[in-house]
Specification:
The structure holds two protein chains of two kinds. By secondary structure, chain A is of the alpha+beta class. Chain A contains 15 helices and 13 strands. Chain A has three domains: about 210 residues, no CATH class; about 120 residues, no CATH class; about 45 residues, no CATH class. The radius of gyration of chain A is 23 Å and the shape is globular. Chain B is α/β, with parallel strands linked by helices. Chain B starts with 12 loop residues before the first strand and ends with a strand. Classes of the chains: A alpha+beta, B alpha/beta.
Chain lengths: ~400, ~525
């Protein structure tokens, strides 16, 4: 729950953003053709205001791919210094579904999910620490948006530094963290107290989004029924096999998912090292040491985005595949998105309803379609439909 | 290397995916690729190759400097100017001594239209008729117009012939699945159709090599026919061009620049050798110099390529990524990726698409620049190449085998499983890993059969079998896959030469003058 609320005029907010852009990196939505991307901007005027969301999830800023985790020289393995210092960064315009996703990633990469703070991910947390999130409540969701089903929006109670809602007279600023309070303190002269009318307007706008979704959207993340089916293992093999036929193993669903955290680590000669042998390419890293060929030179340990749907992801060193078919890998993915077991461990669904997986899926099996099929399997909708058709 | 939150770029750079013929548009966010949502072809989706395309930019396998083979047989790094002068001098000497027809040029469907024209100009400047590309098999004229993906959305019925669209053309695959979802009848004709065969309204099973005949019999007047070069791989180019052509037929291109090969006239001139013939003639010493641009003939024909590179007096390879061809060359010059180039691509629907560099050229050179410089050096005032007339089609290729009592299965190439054979895939991390795993599991290759055939044979997935035709045989691991029709078998593309030679299946189709794998009747024996 927000611990303080303010009102800012549109001009005042732009002024705040201009000042932040001058002293830090300000990243926000910009338009390129028909697409919206989050990119650094020099001033508030460069920001795109009429957007829904970007296909690129904000996690790409915190888990860039490829990311150099270490550089070392062989023989000997002496570390080589490198990398630029991280800059303080402000994100403006991130949507609630992505804020909720970042909260999940924070728990995972801090080790909180498994109760192991000792395995916290330094590079990820370093980036998050230098980041201020000014999220903006979505008021005109896209056809694929389903945050309402997953407690991923349209507005949140926590996870942001500031949560901004555009009102008829300006912006409602909700403060959600110590960093947010500090920011509000700095710009106190640009902020004004709120009144009941503003809070009511915000509540009305959020309720309007929810109502519009329920009334007009045909997409749902059927978390209750689907969660029951996948949690209890009640879906037959044929269900997953058919999904496996539809999945083309592109990896896109995980690459754009705001909550997916899987990554791959490889050791590779440094970029442009002059390797002329295709055999000298990047190979999966052996924990703790470089892989063969152990040739003199400088090597990078790289982290790249990954996807549990890929056969290479599950392949073991000895050549076995614990989840050999694509259908089996689909089962794992959706178990991690919808199951009660996952919710019990993580505290929330593995989906925030951003709808990106529905946008990028070549096989047409985004989480809305799959969870609907799970529900159909529970309530027998296909049989009912067939009976109705026959009648 | 991405430096998110360190020194981030503000540009939103787009480029074309460098792999298949779909022509997807990518946004490159640092070295991370994302699909363009508003692009009518891409519509926000990519296959794994596209998602991995950004990994190419800073791949350790990028060729960023020129090399010359020294007397001690190792490749030494030299300035690009030195390498170009050396190459030019060697080519001039060979042409002077053996004539211009002693030099052959291998182009590639990874190049822009402008670069392909520059390669045609280079052949003209040298005076050689030997100009071709190994990927030409799908770029010949005929076989229907270049339709757009929207035609799939409008189709009342769809007939997919012998191609696994999920790999060959994922965006067409997506539209076909969407059509299925709308209740459009989709029929698949073939012996090994991948997932589409399983999902289609009907799978019309036929033996390898029988796809065209089966499709011609099954086709209705309102069918949209989709096919690709997998038919040509099996010697069916002639029948396919005759029987599957027409206004309702679309031969989907396999590579991003494949339609440009025809547009730029990349095919042998009168008296010239086709790509495969060029390698054969280099192996015997008739072709003295080979100029290879952005391709790796070692991938599918490693033994022939090794003989060709050894037989030729001089080999120049220009590529953006390391390949076995580059390893074996006398001179290596760095090329550029599509993301680093300005130019034009012919999209799958035949429209011209302009590329702007999404990133500066890392090597400072491109394949087109190398061709231009060599042409200027060797051709003097030869000027642009005249427009080449179309390559005439030859007679039909070899007929496929039919099964016999002694050889009850018919084996063909699996043109889809190992897209990792593509040199650019090998320079990524994520897409490479998928192919790397398969190859590591079965380093000597494999043969895919239906589980019922495997059971009848008494073998399990992963066991080794002897595959024999009446010409010979070889030992391969067996993979049991329900996507293979009973009575058929498939061997992955990277075993094309070895298996083709052992089984007597590797032949040249006179129709397009391309190497093919003639479907052979075989028997499998437990080892």
């Amino acid at each position: 729950m927000s611990d303080a609320r303010y009102w800012a005029s549109a001009a005042a907010l732009d002024g705040i953003l201009d000042r932040l852009a001058a002293e830090r990196t300000l990243i926000g939505p910009v338009r390129r053709g028909g697409d919206v991307c989050f990119r650094p901007v020099a001033r508030a005027a460069d920001l795109c205001r009429d957007y829904v969301n970007a296909l690129e999830p904000p996690k790409r800023w915190f888990l860039p791919t490829p990311e150099r985790l270490a550089r070392y020289r062989l023989p000997g393995g002496a570390p080589v210094d490198g990398g630029d210092a991280l800059r303080e960064t402000v994100f403006f315009g991130i949507r609630s579904c992505d804020v909720a996703g970042l909260a999940q990633l924070d728990r995972f990469f801090s080790g909180e999910t498994i109760g192991r703070p000792d395995v916290a991910d330094g590079p990820y947390l370093a980036r998050r620490k230098r980041t201020t999130i000014l999220s903006v409540v979505c008021q005109d969701p896209a056809e694929t948006c389903m945050c309402v089903c997953c407690k991923g929006g349209p507005a949140l109670d926590a996870g942001f530094d500031w949560q901004l809602t555009e009102l008829s007279t300006g912006w409602l600023v909700e403060v959600g963290s110590a960093k947010g309070r500090e920011l509000a303190g700095r710009f106190v002269s640009s902020l004004a107290p709120t009144d009941e009318r503003m809070l009511a307007e915000q509540a009305g706008r959020v309720a309007g989004v929810v109502e519009t979704f329920h009334r007009h959207s045909s997409r749902r993340v059927q978390s209750m029924a689907a969660g029951r089916m996948v949690s209890q293992g009640r879906l037959p093999e044929a269900f997953w096999a058919e999904l496996g036929e539809r999945c083309v193993e592109c990896g896109g669903c995980a690459f754009v998912c705001p909550t997916c955290s899987c990554f791959n680590v490889v050791d590779a000669p440094e970029a442009g090292a002059g390797v002329l042998s295709p055999a000298g390419g990047p190979e999966p890293a052996v924990p703790g040491g470089p892989t063969s060929p152990n040739v003199e030179g400088t090597y990078d340990r790289l982290r790249l985005r990954d996807n549990c749907q890929l056969a290479g992801f599950v392949r073991q060193y000895g050549g076995s595949y614990p989840r050999a078919t694509c259908g089996e890998r689909c089962r794992t993915r959706f178990f991690h998105k919808l199951s009660w077991q996952f919710v019990a461990r993580v505290g929330t669904l593995g989906c925030t309803g951003c709808g990106r997986c529905a946008q990028v899926c070549l096989g047409g099996i985004g989480i809305d379609v799959v969870s609907q099929r799970m529900t159909d399997a529970l309530v027998g909708a296909p049989a009912a439909a067939a009976a109705a058709k026959g009648a | 290397m991405s430096t998110a939150l360190a020194s981030v770029g503000s540009a939103v750079n787009t480029t074309a995916c460098p792999f298949c013929g779909s022509g997807c548009t990518l946004i490159l966010a640092d070295a991370e690729a994302f699909p363009v949502l508003s692009d009518p072809v891409t519509r926000g989706a990519l296959c794994l190759r596209g998602w991995s395309a950004g990994e190419l930019l800073d791949s350790p396998l990028r060729v960023l400097s020129a090399r010359i083979r020294t007397r001690g047989s190792s490749l030494a790094t030299v300035p690009a100017e030195t390498a170009l002068e050396h190459a030019s001098a060697r080519l001039a000497a060979i042409r002077s001594k053996h004539g211009p027809a002693s030099i052959g040029i291998l182009a590639s469907a990874r190049l822009t239209l402008e670069e392909l024209h520059l390669l045609a100009d280079l052949a003209h400047a040298i005076g050689t008729p030997h100009l071709d590309a190994l990927q030409r098999l799908g770029s010949t004229p005929g076989g229907g117009p270049s339709l757009g993906l929207d035609v799939i959305a409008r189709a009342a019925r769809i007939l997919v012939v012998g191609t696994d669209l999920s790999v060959r053309h994922p965006q067409a695959h997506r539209r076909v699945l969407e059509a299925l979802g709308r209740g459009v009848p989709v029929r698949f004709v073939g012996s090994n159709g991948g997932p589409l065969a399983a999902l289609a309204t009907e799978w019309i099973r036929c033996l390898p090599g029988g796809e065209v005949e089966a499709a011609a019999q099954a086709a209705r007047a309102d069918d949209l026919i989709l096919w690709s070069s997998e038919l040509a791989l099996h010697g069916q180019a002639g029948p396919a061009l005759r029987k599957l052509g027409g206004a309702r037929s679309w031969r989907l291109p396999d590579f991003v620049g494949q339609l440009g090969l025809h547009e730029a006239g990349i095919h042998p001139r009168a008296g010239g050798f086709a790509a495969y013939e060029m390698l054969q003639r280099a192996a015997t010493g008739e072709v003295k110099a080979l100029l290879v641009f952005a391709d790796d003939p070692f991938e599918f024909f490693p033994a022939l390529a090794a003989r060709a590179f050894a037989g030729a007096e001089f080999v120049l390879v220009t590529d953006a990524v390391a390949t076995r061809a580059a390893e074996a060359a006398d001179v290596v010059l760095p090329g550029s990726l599509l993301a680093e180039k300005a130019g034009t691509l012919l999209a799958a629907d035949g429209r011209r698409r302009t590329l702007e560099p999404a990133r500066g050229a890392r090597a400072g050179m491109s394949e087109g620049e190398v061709a231009r410089r060599l042409a200027a050096s060797l051709g003097g005032a030869a000027g642009p190449a005249p427009r080449a007339s179309d390559l005439p089609l030859g007679p039909d290729g070899p007929a496929p085998d039919v099964p016999t009592a002694d050889y009850p299965l018919v084996v063909a190439l699996d043109g889809a499983t190992l897209w990792g054979s593509h040199a650019l895939v090998g320079a990524t991390v994520t897409a490479r890993r998928e192919a790397w795993g398969l190859r590591t599991d079965s380093p000597d290759g494999w043969v895919t059969v239906n589980p019922t055939d495997a059971k009848a044979l008494g073998v399990r997935h992963g066991w080794t079998v002897r595959v024999e035709s009446d010409s010979g045989g070889l030992t391969l691991a067996v993979r049991a896959d329900p996507h293979a029709a009973p009575g058929t078998a498939a061997i992955p593309m990277h075993c094309w030469e070895r298996a083709g030679t052992a089984l007597g299946a590797l032949e040249v189709d006179p129709c397009l003058r391309i190497p093919v794998f003639r479907p052979r009747a075989v028997r499998l024996g437990r080892q």
